[in-house]
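Take one record.
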Amino acid sequence: MINELTSEILFRCPCCQKLFCTESHAVENHDNRSAKNTEFQCTDCSEDFYLSNERTTSGLFQTLKRTQHEFVNCTKCNFLKNKKSDECPSCGVIETRYKDIVKLENPRLFELNQMWSSVVMDLENDQAHQEFLSRAQSMSALNFAAQKYIDLQKIMGSDDLTEKYIRQVELRLEAAANNFISAEKEKYIREGSGPKTFFGLQYTFRNMALVISLLGVFFIILNVMRPLFPSLNGLLVAIVALSTALWAISKNQTKTF
């Protein structure tokens, strides 16, 4: 409604219906495609809206809520894009298709990225952080979690929240490293305390005598086929005979006991 005497126009907030008035020049030469000069904010409910050049049935100028745009990070390049838009204006990737490809190629990484998105949506939720860190640790991907928090710190700046969780990642990595070192030490001790072997045989007198006898036979055969040291054949025969006798004696003693 326009007051002809004062050249004022009347309109209502589209949210709380509070009545407003303003000068008529606010809508002069105005169309629906250019509304930046007629934007208002309700003093009661703080709703942002703008005037249209159309009128309601009561004669008041029609008001329209200002379109709210919610932005999210692109899954591939982290560029801020409109949440309703499936295509990233920076890298050109189609969000839904890219997620499907990542899910097929690396389902574990896809799961961690989904959990990280939940963390970013509610940074004050400690449970979401702990679930993300525990899942990353179970997948041996704490380095991935650390990189996520470092990237977040670059965006938000250094604060107590990101420092807290970066420290938690460091503690988890340190604990994992200590557990690995302890396990390796225990494995080394177990292997060191076990029976020592030589060519698959335990270091016993009987087995050593058998090995010496077999080596002597091998060198005798080699010296017969290619007589490099024919004068040693007698010595080799004596060694073989002695070691075989010792092996036989120790074998009989073992059976006796």
User: Anything to note?
Assistant: Confidence is low (pLDDT under 50) at residues 32-36. The helical segments are 95-105, 107-121, 126-138, 142-156, 160-193, 205-225, 233-256.
